[in-house]
Amino acid sequence: MFHDPLHDPLHDPLRSALPQDRLPHALAPLGWDEAWEAEFAPYAAQGLLPGRVVRVDRGQCDVMTADGPVRADTAFVTPHDPLRVICTGDWAAVEAAGNPRYVKAYLPRRTSFVRSTSSQRSEGQILAANVDHAVIAVSLAVELDLGRIERFLALAWESGARPLVALTKADLVADPATLSHLVADVEATAPGVPVLTVSSRTGEGLDAMAAVVAGGTSVLLGISGAGKSTLANTLLGADAMVVQEAREVDGKGRHTTTTRNLLVLPGGGVLIDTPGLRGVGLWDAEAGVGQVFSEIEEYAARCRFHDCAHEAEPGCAVLAAVDAGDLAERRLESYRKLLRENRRLLAKTDARLRSEMRRDWRVKSAQGRANHEAKRTGSPRPRL
């Protein structure tokens, strides 16, 4: 049976991590600092209590306050905009008493990890708030999907958090040369991002991982079967998260984590575990895409035309880099794909951008027809 540490008065890691005498900084293990305290001052004047949201579920949320865990109603913080609903990691202003008790507001977020939903309404979904590090768990038990890693990285950079790639289940790669090759592939995919190999079974890389997550709030991301919950349990030193084995045939796991949970780590820091994500849709992540493909952005700055699409334009430094072998064609294709996806998503909510895209499409269609006609007749190709 699933053990819920939040509601166990004898074995509550969140409660044990907090001083019992309600000191001014009793919430420090959860990330409370002087800046948060200053932001909260107007709510304190109203008699409200500060607390960090540990879990949100069906109109209620669990909030850790200086007095311990509180179950509160979210009716006052449930707007129509899905990006403004309260979520795990938020700092909440909670009523000091009442039955039920209500969350009356939450503090402005420093960072937020957002993806697009799989619905046809093109809505964003916020996964975690006030995160310092985004740990992207990638299983080495299956073939690496570099494109998916790039997606996660784009969202991580866009969130304002610092990304890190954790290659889990490293003990399943017996050949050191193979492991080194896999790490090199991911490092090339994630320029400027630390890449760690970890194994919850052997302990490999866990000290380095613990040192990273000790410095603030981290969110653990990845698809089902990536080893997120096992890694969370190992860092926590307790079986707080249910774990199920991945299928042997394809390494895919089942969604054992169904809610986002905030955990206080014994070595310092806060970890937000998330359900396995089936889809990793971008949400207004153009800057994040540019960060992931920083080498392409650098080449693009040297293109002849400032609006070069890097497809067939003369003087394109990006295409020249591909021809010279300095830039992998797979990287360029992935870059184009993510930018197109992000642009299409934005166009669904931006009439001006939709108009620009239609105009670009008409220009390219006219260019294609003109090139086809020139090829057919043997005349010089016109420039539109």
What does this protein look like?
This protein folds into 3 domains: 5-106, OB fold (Dihydrolipoamide Acetyltransferase, E2P) (Beta Barrel); 128-273, P-loop containing nucleotide triphosphate hydrolases (Rossmann fold); 286-377, Probable gtpase engc, domain 3 (Ribonucleotide Reductase Protein R1, domain 1, Orthogonal Bundle). Helix 10 crosses helix 11 (351-377). The chain is α/β, with parallel strands linked by helices and 384 residues long. 35% of the residues are buried. Helices cover 33% and strands 19% of the residues.
Give the SSE map.
Elements: H1 13-16, H2 34-44, E1 49-57, E2 60-65, E3 68-73, E4 91-94, E5 101-106, E6 112-116, E7 124-129, E8 133-139, H3 146-159, E9 162-168, H4 176-189, E10 195-197, H5 206-213, E11 217-221, H6 228-236, E12 261-264, E13 270-273, H7 286-292, H8 294-300, H9 317-323, H10 329-347, H11 351-377
Parallel strand pairs: 3-5, 8-9, 8-11, 9-10, 11-13
Antiparallel strand pairs: 1-2, 1-4, 2-3, 4-5, 6-7, 12-13
Helix-strand string: HHEEEEEEEEHEHEHEHEEHHHHH
Indicate the CATH topology of the largest domain.
Rossmann fold
Order of strands in the sheet with most strands: 10-9-8-11-13-12
Can you tell me the overall shape? globular
Oligomer: single chain
CATH superfamily of the largest domain: P-loop containing nucleotide triphosphate hydrolases
CATH architectural grouping of the largest domain: 3-Layer(aba) Sandwich
Count all strands and give the number.
13
The CATH class name of the largest domain reads Alpha Beta
How much is the average pLDDT? 81
Parts with pLDDT < 50 across at least 5 consecutive residues = 1-24, 242-258
Range of helix content: 25-40%
Q: Give the domain tally.
A: 3
